[in-house]
Design brief:
heterotrimer, A mainly beta, B alpha+beta, C mainly alpha, A: mainly beta, Immunoglobulin-like, five-stranded mixed β-sheet, three-stranded antiparallel β-sheet, B: alpha+beta, six-stranded mixed β-sheet, 17% helix, SoxY-related AACIE arm protein (chain B), signal (chain B), TAT_signal (chain B)
Chain lengths: 106, 155, 262
C-alpha cells in the first residue's frame, strides 16, 4: 500500500466550503526519462483520482506524465450532511488504492 | 551581498545564466519528440467551441527553481450552482513531451472552482488553463514559467 | 538528466569567473541563514504546510516503523524509548555525537541503524534506504524548531577539525572548495540557482531534484560531483567529519526536518 496523506476538517457547518488536500506516495515515472543505463524507463503513473461522498462522485482528476512525483491534489466541497468520503487512485500496472475519511456536519 | 529575495538584477542574471546553459547544451540534446501538438490536445478537450480569455486565474511561479515539482493552482469565477458552474478544467503545456498536464471534473457540490496540484515542466514555456462551463462556453488563462537549472545535481 | 550534467560544470565556471569575489575566504558567515530563506514563496509554503509537504509521507512511514516490533521479537523503538514526541525531542539537534562503543563520531542515521542491529536483532538498514530515511526523518521531526546544538564533547574535536579542513580544501577538477561557494559566494548565483550558506538544517530533506527524501551524505555527494571531485566512498569517515563541522557552523539555526529544497 502506498502511503497517503489526506487532510480535511473533522467537522464543518452546513454550507461551509471545506478544503480537501491529498498526497500519494508514487514515483509518477514519466516514460520519457532515461535510466542509469541510458534506456527509457517504463511509464508508471497514476492516471485517475476520484473522490466520492457517500458514493456520489464530487471530484475527479485525469493525470498525465506532467504530474509531479508524489501527486498532490487539492479541491473543495460544500458541507451538506455528515458522511464518509472515499479517495481512489488508479494507474499503470494495475495500481489501485482507496482510502476513506469522515466528516461531521452540523 | 545580503539580498535574499531575487531583485530585478538578480533575476536577469539568472535568466542570462539559463540562456548560457541552454546555449551550451550539446546538439544531441534536442527536446524529445512530442506525442501530440498542444493545439490538437486542446481541440480534443474543447471540440470546435470558441475559447475566450477571462474568468480563469492560473497561478504558477514565474521563476521555477526545479522543473520536477512546480506548484500550480487554478480558480474560475463561477457561482458554482446547479444552473451555472464549472464542469471541467484542462491544463496544457507547450514543451513537455506530452501536451496534457491535468484535467479535473467539478460540479456545484465543490462550492468553489479552485484546485491546486504540482506539475513537471521540461523547459521554460507557457501553460494554459481552460475551463468548460455548464453553459458550454470555454474560458482560458495562460502563464509563462522560466525553468532554471538546479546546481550540483547527481552526477 | 544527462543533458543537464554536461552543462553544469561549464555554467559553474562561467559563474565564478564572471563575478568579483564577495569575501576573501574569511570564514563562515556570521549572519547565519537557512537555505529556506532563499526559496520562492511557493516552496517555503510547501515546507511549512505539513499537509502539503511531500517529506511528511516518509515521516508517516517512520512513525509506523517506530511502533512496529522487528521480526526478531525484540521490542520496537517505542518499546524502549516510548513515544518519540517525548523521548526523541532534541536528539537530532545534538548529532553527530560520540559513540562510546566504536570510539568514533556517529551520525543519527548511523545511530538508528546501530540500535536496530545491536538491540533489535535486525538486519542492517542500508544507507539511504527508504526505511532508514523514514526513521531518521521521524526522529528528526521531534527536534523541529529547536536550535542545532552540537555536543561540546572534546573527543569529537579531531573529527570536527578534520571536517573544517575538508570544507576549506580545494578538491576536484575545478579546484573548488566548499568554502569558496558557501562562505565566500553565498547569496550569489551559480548558473541560475542561488548559492546557499550550506547549513544542514533540514535533513533528511525532500529535494525536488531527487523527487524523494535524501540524507545530508547524498547532498554532499552531489556537491562533490558538482565540483568534479570524486565523492568519498560510502560510509567514509570524511562524511561524518564534514557533518560535524557543518553542525557547528550552522548552530544555533533551528532544525527544519523535513525541509524542502530545489
Amino acid at each position: 500500500m502506498a502511503r497517503t496523506l489526506i487532510n480535511l476538517p473533522k467537522t464543518a457547518k452546513p454550507g461551509e466550503v471545506v478544503a480537501i488536500k491529498t498526497l500519494l506516495s508514487h514515483p509518477m515515472e514519466t516514460g520519457f526519462r532515461p535510466g542509469p543505463d541510458g534506456r527509457i524507463l517504463a511509464r508508471n503513473i497514476v492516471t485517475e483520482f476520484v473522490c466520492r461522498f457517500e458514493g456520489d462522485e464530487i471530484f475527479r482528476a485525469e493525470l498525465f506524465p506532467a504530474s509531479s512525483a508524489n501527486p498532490y491534489l487539492t479541491f473543495t466541497w460544500v458541507a451538506t450532511r455528515s458522511g464518509g468520503f472515499t479517495f481512489t487512485w488508479r494507474g499503470d500496472n494495475g495500481f489501485e488504492q482507496t482510502e476513506t475519511a469522515a466528516i461531521a456536519v452540523g | 551581498m545580503t539580498a535574499q529575495r531575487p531583485d530585478r538584477r538578480r533575476v536577469l542574471a539568472g535568466a542570462a545564466g539559463t540562456v548560457l546553459a541552454v546555449a551550451l547544451r550539446p546538439a544531441g540534446a534536442a527536446p524529445l519528440p512530442r506525442t501530440e501538438t498542444t493545439e490538437s490536445a486542446i481541440r480534443r478537450f474543447a471540440g470546435t467551441s470558441a475559447i475566450r480569455p477571462g474568468r480563469v486565474t492560473l497561478d504558477l511561479p514565474p521563476l521555477v527553481e526545479n522543473g520536477n515539482t512546480v506548484p500550480l493552482s487554478v480558480s474560475v469565477e463561477s457561482p458554482m450552482i446547479p444552473a451555472d458552474h464549472v464542469r471541467r478544467i484542462g491544463v496544457f503545456n507547450e514543451r513537455n513531451p506530452q501536451p496534457n498536464v491535468v484535467t479535473v471534473h467539478l460540479g456545484p457540490e465543490a462550492g468553489r472552482a479552485q484546485v491546486a496540484t504540482r506539475i513537471r515542466l521540461a523547459d521554460s514555456q507557457r501553460i494554459t488553463a481552460i475551463a468548460e462551463m455548464s453553459d458550454g462556453t470555454y474560458w482560458s488563462a495562460s502563464a509563462d514559467a522560466i525553468v532554471t537549472l538546479a546546481a550540483c545535481l547527481e552526477g | 538528466m544527462p543533458r543537464r550534467s554536461t552543462v553544469k560544470p561549464l555554467a559553474l565556471v562561467a559563474c565564478l569567473l564572471c563575478g568579483p569575489p564577495a569575501g576573501a575566504g574569511d570564514g563562515a558567515p556570521v549572519d547565519r541563514r537557512s537555505g529556506f530563506d532563499q526559496m520562492s514563496p511557493e516552496l517555503r509554503a510547501m515546507q511549512r504546510d505539513d499537509t502539503a509537504n511531500p517529506g511528511m509521507l516518509a515521516v508517516a512511514d517512520g512513525a509506523e516503523l517506530w511502533g512496529r516490533p522487528p521480526a526478531s521479537g525484540k521490542p520496537s523503538c517505542a518499546g524502549c524509548h516510548g513515544t518519540a514526541e517525548a523521548g526523541m525531542r532534541g536528539v537530532a539537534a545534538r548529532y553527530p555525537a560520540w559513540d562510546e562503543r566504536t570510539h568514533r563520531p556517529i551520525d543519527l542515521q548511523g545511530r538508528i541503524d546501530q540500535c536496530r542491529r545491536e538491540r533489535q536483532g535486525g538486519e542492517p538498514l542500508p544507507h539511504e534506504s527508504p526505511d532508514i530515511l523514514a526513521l531518521t526523518a521521524f526522529v528528526s521531526l521531534q527536534s523541529r524548531g529547536l536550535p542545532i546544538a552540537p555536543p561540546g564533547d572534546t573527543r569529537l574535536e579531531p573529527a570536527r577539525a578534520a571536517g573544517r579542513a575538508l570544507f576549506a580544501r580545494r578538491m576536484g577538477q575545478l579546484g573548488l572548495s566548499c568554502a569558496i561557494c558557501h562562505d565566500d559566494h553565498w547569496g550569489r548565483r551559480l548558473g541560475s540557482a542561488t548559492i546557499p550558506q550550506g547549513h544542514p538544517t533540514g535533513y533528511p530533506l525532500y529535494r525536488l531534484e531527487w523527487q524523494a527524501l535524501g540524507s545530508l551524505q547524498r547532498r554532499l555527494r552531489n556537491c562533490l560531483t558538482g565540483m568534479r571531485a570524486e565523492p568519498f566512498p560510502d560510509g567514509a569517515p570524511d562524511y561524518t567529519a564534514l557533518e560535524l563541522y557543518l553542525a557547528t557552523r550552522a548552530a544555533p539555526l533551528p532544525v527544519e526536518t523535513p525541509a524542502i529544497r530545489p
